[in-house]
Structure formats: C-alpha cells, structure tokens
Write a structure and sequence with these properties.
mainly alpha, globular
C-alpha cells in the first residue's frame, strides 16, 4: 500500500499555514521574510522551469495577500529593496581578497545572476502589488 503522493508544487499551502504560526511566535517581519523573502522567491525561481509550479503561482500570491495587508507587504518589499538590492555590500574581512575592488559586490562578480535576482524581485513586487 502506498502513502499519499507529495505534490511539491502545492507546498505553498503548507508554507502559508506555517506563516501564521511564525507571525504569532516571531513577529510580522520574520513571517514576511519567511513567506516572501524565502519561500515565494524560491517558488518563483522553480516556476520559471516547471509548469506545475507556474500554474500554482497565482494561488500562492493570493494566499500571501490573505495573510498580510497591502501596507504590510508594501513596507516589507520597500525594506527588502533597500536592504538587499540598493544597499552597498559590507566587506567580509575573512573572505575578502585584498586585491579585489571594494566596489565590486556579489552582483558585479556575477552580473547575470544579479540581474536575474533583481528581475525576480521586480516580478514579486508586481505580483503582490497589482
């Protein structure tokens, strides 16, 4: 006898359910970081290659919009944009090469990956704030 089949493209349902507990236990910012900053970005990345995930994306976004107000989502996305995409990278003295240009952050080391991540952020903003 076999157990229930895991439908990985439906994982967003469990992630949204967990978000409520995270919000109660760890606060609003941690809940937003979990479901948008981690789970939605990952889901979006996978949906670029997997049609089953792409088909579930609107439902995932709607689930997030039920969990948070538009203002909470907007303020989180503004914070994420400032902190991750517009902020200069802090040098890491343990891993930085002394010959490296200090203005060359991770996005400049691999500009294609940096551009893809920025486009993904733009898409997340567009999906959550129509």
């Amino acid at each position: 006898m076999s157990g229930p089949v895991t439908e990985f493209h439906k994982i967003w349902i469990e992630q949204c359910a967990a978000t409520g507990d995270i919000r109660e236990t760890f606060g609003l910012e941690n809940a937003l970081e979990y479901v948008i900053g981690e789970k939605l970005f990952t889901f979006l990345l996978v949906s670029e290659q997997d049609p089953a995930f792409a088909a579930e994306l609107p439902a995932f976004v709607a689930g997030i919009q039920r969990l948070f107000s538009s203002r909470e989502i907007s303020e989180y996305l503004d914070h994420l944009e400032r902190a991750k995409f517009l902020a200069p990278q802090e040098p890491d003295p343990e891993t930085d090469d002394l010959d490296q240009d200090p203005d060359e952050g991770p996005c400049l080391k691999n500009p294609v990956m940096g551009a893809e991540e920025l486009l993904r952020f733009s898409r997340v903003r567009h999906l959550l704030q129509p």
